[in-house]
Structures are given as C-alpha cells and as structure tokens.
C-alpha cells in the first residue's frame, strides 16, 4: 500500500507542502483534534510542523480506510474492524 500511495516522493512532497504553505486551516485544526494531537502536544510548535502533522494524520486516515480491503484476502475470517485494528498497531 505504501509503495503505491506513500512513496519517498510523496513523503517529501508532504514535508515540502507543509514548509511552503504552512497556513493552518480550520480543517487542519479539526483533523489534529480528531487524531488527538491537541494543544498539549502542539503548543508553541511552528505552523509548518502543525501543517505537517495534519497532512500525516490525513494520510493515516486514508490508510485506515484502505487497509481492510487490502488485507481481506489474506485474512478472510477477520472483520473489517479487526483489520483496521491490526493496521493501527
């Protein structure tokens, strides 16, 4: 999965995007909150780092949505919730 959607170039682009366009949107704030990266962790960090964290959270949620289908053939007896739990370990 990572070989297709999160290559070396993709990871560098996320960092580049965070550094060159570090504006924190309301959507970024909501995503950080949803992923439990709250003020206690994000206090006094530069905007680019908050943006980078938001972009990484966005990718992690994408992975979480894709993994059940990706692993279903290898683990047919597991439910979708079980497969999501495995991918989040």
Question: How would you describe this protein?
Answer:
By secondary structure, the chain is an all-alpha fold. Helix content is 72%, strand content 0%. The protein contains six helices and no strands. α2 (8-20) packs antiparallel against α5 and α3 (26-34) crosses α5. The longest helix has 26 residues, at 47-72. The radius of gyration is 15 Å and the shape is flat. It starts with a helix and ends with a helix.
Percent helix range: over 70%
**Helix/strand order, N-terminal first:** HHHHHH
Oligomer: single chain
Distance N to C terminus: 16 Å
Report the sheet with the most strands, covering strand number, pairing sense and barrel closure: none
Question: What is the count of DSSP helices, taking H or I runs of 4+ residues?
Answer: 6
Which shape, going by the Cα principal axes? Answer: flat
User: Helix/strand-derived class?
Assistant: mainly alpha
Would you tell me the overall average pLDDT?
A: 85
Number of strands: 0
Report the portion of residues in β strands.
Answer: under 5%
The whole-angstrom Rg is 15 Å
Unreliable runs, pLDDT <50, ≥5 residues? Answer: none
């Amino acid at each position: 999965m990572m070989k297709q959607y999160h290559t070396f170039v993709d990871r560098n682009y996320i960092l580049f995007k965070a550094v060159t366009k570090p504006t924190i949107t309301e959507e970024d704030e909501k995503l950080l909150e949803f992923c439990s990266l709250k003020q206690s962790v994000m206090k006094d960090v530069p905007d680019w780092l908050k943006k980078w964290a938001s972009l990484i959270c966005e990718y992690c949620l994408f992975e979480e949505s894709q993994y059940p289908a990706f692993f279903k053939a290898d683990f047919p007896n597991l439910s979708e919730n079980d497969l999501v739990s495995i991918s989040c370990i």
